[in-house]
Each structure stands twice: as C-alpha cells, then as structure tokens.
Write a structure and sequence with these properties.
With 127 residues, the protein is mainly alpha-helical. It folds into 2 domains: 9-62, no CATH class; 78-124, no CATH class. Helices cover 41% and strands 8% of the residues. The chain has a two-stranded antiparallel sheet with strand order 1-2. The protein is rod-shaped.
Length: 127
C-alpha cells in the first residue's frame, strides 16, 4: 500500500457513476445527490477568512437552524405511513382480530402491537 490518500471514491448521482476525491457519502435504497456551494460565492469575505483559519480546503456541513428542520419522517413520508399503519392495526383489533393475528400480518412483536393498540392518537402524533 502506498502512502497518501486513496484513489477516487465512486457514488451514484442522477443515474451516472461519478468519481469524487476526498468526500464520500452514501444512502441505502435511494440515489444520493451530493451538492455544495463554494464559500467564495456565498460568504462575506471576513467570514470566509475566519473559516479558513479553522478548516482550510475542507468541506463543512452547515445545518439548517433547528426551527427550519423537518421532523422525523416528514420529508420521506415514513411518519405518515406509520401513523396510517398504526390506525389500521387499531381498527383491525377493534373489529376482533387477535394480537397473534396482527403479529403475523404486520411482522411486529406482540409487545409492539399492544403498544400501538393502547397508545392514544395524541401521544403518537407528537414529534
């Protein structure tokens, strides 16, 4: 093995395989789009100079302010899907299906099924 950084890493972006040196991210089950902006184009010169003191030439992730962030599962639709599934489980139980039947239908443990059945809708919809 030689010294120095490894060769380019590959990732899938917009249907094409791309090489990317020095930065790599991946996503399971969906295509990943990696994008970034040049600090010279978006930051005031004094702020850019200050950042260069700490991380010259490095990529930096700047998170959104917490009040702008989406809640868990809101963007992907997972939250809505689980709320609908849980309501369906409650409805099936109310119509007479047993916990054992629901376990095999939804591939969840009995404890999980009981938790869903007896949890109130208000408690479930909290972030």
């Amino acid at each position: 093995m030689g010294k120095g950084p490894p060769g380019p890493l590959f990732y899938r972006c917009c249907g094409a395989e791309r090489a990317h040196h020095g930065f790599f991210a991946f996503s399971i089950g969906r295509t990943l789009t990696v994008s970034y902006k040049n600090g010279k184009d978006v930051l005031p010169p004094r702020l850019l100079e200050e950042l260069q003191k700490y991380t010259p030439g490095e990529l930096i992730y700047v998170p959104k302010p917490s009040e702008c962030r989406a809640g868990w599962g809101e963007v992907s639709g997972t939250r809505k899907m689980l709320l609908e599934r849980n309501e369906e489980i409650r409805r099936s139980y109310a119509e007479g299906r047993s916990v054992d039947e629901l376990e095999s239908i939804y591939h969840l443990s009995g404890d999980s099924i009981r938790r869903i059945i007896f949890r109130t809708k208000a408690a479930e919809s909290r972030p």
